[in-house]
Amino acid sequence: GHADYFRSPAAHNTLEVAGAAVAKVAGQLAWSNVATKPTLAARVNNDVWLARGRVAFDDVVIRRYVLAIPRSGMWVTDWIESKKNRDVSWYWQLGANDFQASLADSLRLRNEHGLTVRMWCADSMNDWEMTAANAASPVGWEATGYGVKHPGSRLRLSVPCAGSLLMTSFIGRTHSPCQLERVTVGGHAVTMIEGKLPTIAQNSFAEIAWTVGDRESRRTFLAGSPSAGVEQLSNAREISGEGDWPVVVVEHEPSEFRSTGFRSDVAAANGGTK
User: Structure pTM?
Assistant: First the structure.
């Protein structure tokens, strides 16, 4: 019924791995087979917010990384590993904001208010749909209080995962001052621009690397394990702030890059675009 839907991943801003539930419904207000407690970490200051979470259940491991830059937007990178071939679905509850969708190098939703949701993946993203709320279905409705609901819309994007899958989503302003140019996790990368990107010496410290550009500069945030050698990274300085997740930033010289536009493809872990 409607109650089960609103308790499911499909009614939230999250992802779902087919056939591998984080928890199972056990009655109207109960759960069973709950996954082990996730591990969480963060590094937050006035200029940048970084966070990560990891959860394992069945034969699946999900790592979610968040990079947020105030007044620019938020990037969410998901790295999924599964021993079985499974479909992974992402859901975004969009409210009554009248987003227009298009698919080219990425899946992009924009509205007239300057808001955008954009998703990049190295795999095919043809299986997606926007669903507007209607009286016959709970999909697309949003609740602002108990028994209160408003019509909106929901985006679903499903991608097959054959072993591992890397997806990055952006939520923010259509004309953001910053652009994510490349993200690298586990030796796999997705690039978002044409042209030369700086080479990053990622030793065992780096669990994830985001390269972000604006009109004035390029920088790469690397986050990882405190037990691995941060000092081996050249031109890196540690990011201060609240939290226990070690993060460093590398400021790139202008000669290290030349971007000519946005794209989405797979790049070598330490190289440029294909």
Answer: 0.85
